[in-house]
Amino acid sequence: MHQMKLTTVISGKKQDLLLIFDEAQSVTSIFLDGREVTFHGKNSVPESGELTPGEISVYMPFFSKSRECWFEGCEEMRSKYFEEVEELDIKYKGKCPSCKKGGVIRKYIQELKDANVPPP
């Protein structure tokens, strides 16, 4: 089992995203700012249109400002993502529920997938 930790700063607030993987490199748990985000585990079948844990983990580098962009339009798309999350932080006065941020992350992962963006 291993972990991948990504850190971003939104509205001056440090936000940590932690992914926990099993030996088969499947995501088993996702934590945003220390709170677990619920998702379908590796042994469940996602509902039609839902992202698999593997799809989620492949695109997680997109959400890190410290990672290089690797596809055309990445910087613009990443900027829109951070603007959306910042708007949530403003709306919820810095206490945005992880489910709302998780929804934004899923939205952008789906956009990456739909655009056939290759993994980094």
By DSSP, the count of extended strands is 4
Main beta sheet: 4 strands, antiparallel
Instruction: Look at the structure and give the mean pLDDT.
Output: 77
Oligomeric form: single chain
* Structural domain count: 1
State the distance separating the first and last CA atoms.
22 Å
Gyration radius, rounded: 14 Å
Shape type: globular
Pairing-aware structural class of the strands and helices?
Answer: alpha+beta
Provide the β-strand percentage band: 15-25%
Stretches where pLDDT is under 50 for at least 5 consecutive residues are: 40-48
Strand order of the largest sheet: 1-2-3-4
Count of helical stretches: 3
Helix content: 25-40%
Q: What order do the SSEs take from the amino end to the carboxyl end, as H and E?
A: EEEEHHH
What does this protein structure show overall?
With 120 residues, the chain is an alpha+beta fold. It has one domain (2-114). It is 35% helix and 22% strand. The two termini are 22 Å apart.
